[in-house]
Write a structure and sequence with these properties.
- InterPro entries: Fosfomycin_Res_Enzymes (IPR051332), Glyas_Bleomycin-R_OHBP_Dase (IPR029068), Glyas_Fos-R_dOase_dom (IPR004360), VOC_core (IPR037523), YwkD-like_dom (IPR037478).
- Keywords: Metal-binding.
- 11% of the residues are buried.
- The longest helix is centred in the first third of the chain and has 11 residues, at 16-26.
- The protein has two domains: 1-61, 2,3-Dihydroxybiphenyl 1,2-Dioxygenase, domain 1, CATH 3.10.180.10; 71-127, 2,3-Dihydroxybiphenyl 1,2-Dioxygenase, domain 1 (Roll).
- The protein starts with 7 loop residues before the first strand and ends with a strand.
- The chain has helices spanning 16-26, 84-93, and strands spanning 8-13, 30-37, 42-49, 52-58, 77-81, 102-103, 110-115, 121-126.
- It has two helices and eight strands; from the N terminus they run βαββββαβββ.
- It is α/β, with parallel strands linked by helices.
Length: 127
């Protein structure tokens, strides 16, 4: 029995409308399915990204995630891009700040970080 691939990444947001807009309108992820779960007063939004999915959840009164200083656990979510400079320019045009572009000392590839509406660290990594 072997793991084949990552199926999905789950994100819990504090403001569903704001996060839905960010992931669908700014990052242009395709909506697979949106579900409102009345018994939990919660939304679940399934988004397509390559051969993987992002599940965006809204739960009332979820605790805040520690990001800085970095806490133990999942560090960040990274997206692959063809042209990091164009992506940074695009994000900046949407008033999303990116850190300075750096070069991975192991792979020689360029990368940078930005944040989603809940300050979840997101990375863009150039092919």
């Amino acid at each position: 029995m072997y793991l084949k691939k990552i199926h999905h990444v789950a994100i819990i947001c504090s403001d569903y409308a704001k996060s839905k807009n960010f992931y669908t309108e700014i990052l242009n992820l395709e909506i697979i399915k949106e579900t409102y779960r009345k018994e939990r007063n919660s939304y679940k939004l399934d988004l397509a990204i390559g051969n993987c999915e992002i599940e965006l959840f809204s739960f009332l009164e979820s605790p805040k995630r520690l990001s800085y200083p970095e806490a133990t656990g999942l560090r960040h979510l990274a997206f692959e891009v063809e042209d990091i400079f164009k992506m940074v320019e695009y994000l900046n045009s949407k008033e999303i700040q990116c850190e300075p572009i750096r070069v991975d000392e192991i792979t020689g590839k360029r990368f940078t970080f930005f944040q989603d509406p809940d300050n979840l660290p997101l990375e863009i990594y150039e092919l």
